[in-house]
Amino acid sequence: MKMRVLYLAFALVATLVTAGGAIVPSAAQADETRRQLSLANAVSIDQAVRMAEQRFKARVVRAEAQHDGEHTVYVLRMLNESGHVWTVRVDASNGAVL
Length: 98
What we know:
Helix content is 41%, strand content 33%. By secondary structure, the chain is α+β, with helices and mostly antiparallel strands. It has two domains: 2-40; 45-91, no CATH class. Helix 1 (2-15) packs antiparallel against helix 2 (27-40).
């Protein structure tokens, strides 16, 4: 993870445009860098499953990612020891349970 963040930081500096002595990224480069940094900090579906299983003391029996443009939500189907089944949604960008 640290190597990826370091690589992204290096890539940011490498793709910047020098204008009048100041380093200024183009709008497209800045948007792409923000997108890549948010992906570097995103929660993987495996991390979301482990987090939900620990938090709810239940087992994830089904997991899928739903995409809405650039936003991703993990939809996790949970099953506890008493047989209760429910759905948990996790924001992929920060791991928050929705």
